[in-house]
Amino acid sequence: MAEIIGTLAERQMRKGLPFGMWGESEYLDELVGKNVVIVGPAGYMVGQGLGEYIDSFDVIVRVNHALPIALPEDYGSRTTVLYHILSRRNHNAEGKLTVTQEEVESWDCEWVVSRHESRSSRIRAVGPFLQGRKWTAMDHEFFFKVRKEVGRLAPNTGVSAIAHLLQSQLKSLHVLGFDFYRSGVYKGYGDIREGERADKVNERWHDVDAQLHFLKVLQRRDNRLIFDSVLKGIIDESVSCRTR
Q1: What is the pLDDT of residues 62-111, one digit of tens each?
Q2: How many Å apart are CA 231 and CA 227, to the nearest integer?
Q3: Considering the domain 23-243, what is its CATH architecture?
Q4: pTM
Q5: Structure letter (DSSP) for residue 22
Q6: How many of the other CB atoms lie within 10 Å of CB of 184?
Q7: Phi, psi (degrees; rounded to nearest 5) at 195
């Protein structure tokens, strides 16, 4: 009976949300007490053999174009949560294209979290493809609060995901494979073309220095946040340059 009541309560919470969207709190509740790792596409992970270590976490989070997983021996084989902007670059013109139904159906994960809020044009376009699976969206006010912290440009999906995950009662959040594209990305990741400088592409839309400062502040506020040695070194270097 309790299980039935719980199911009815969840349905009531989702009433009025578009395209079968789940409540944001329902997603965050599933992270309570969990050891979580968020894995980026940084090229420095190739050859490190961290896949088994990554798979040992309770919850494995990835961002944007990480699925399907290209190198499970280095980046792990499981995905619990995928944070996604629901678009990719248009190589033939400026701007972006929304993801296709085929792409969405290929995402082998338990949850999809949209960076775009539920009433956005991006959700109107992609929402029909998300129906029938567990998905939610970041709160609009939360995202713009994070955006305000990192200057005039939007935060990278990984940075907004880190801040969002910390809104839950998770036990720990480990960050691997994020260096703001200094080492490029592994071959086959998303919409980065062969021979293209991923860091230069990133700088078109994001202020890296402002985000590094934001991450440093986040870690000072919350000791559940644990950076790997690469990101920690980049953050320390950036903070040192700002204080000179």
Answers
A1: 999 999 999 999 999 999 999 999 988 776 646 678 999 999 999 999 99
A2: 6
A3: Alpha-Beta Complex (3.90)
A4: 0.89
A5: P
A6: 18
A7: 85, -5
Distance CA 190, CA 63 (A): 10
* pLDDT tens-digit map of 101-154: 999 999 999 999 999 988 899 999 999 999 999 999 999 899 989 989 888 888
What's the rounded Cα separation, in Å, for the pair 212 and 210? 6
> What's the whole-number mean pLDDT along residues 33-52?
97
Distance CA 159, CA 217 (A): 12
CA–CA gap between residue 228 and residue 223 (Å, rounded) = 14
Q: Hey, CA dihedral for 67, 72, 75, 81, is it positive or negative?
A: positive
Is the Cβ–Cβ distance between 182 and 195 less than 8 Å?
no
Per-residue model confidence as pLDDT tens digits over 198-231: 666 666 668 888 999 999 999 999 999 999 999 9
Please state the domain extents for the chain. 23-243
CA atoms within 13 A on the CB side of 220: 9
In 3D, which of 51, 17, 34 has the Cα closest to residue 165? 34
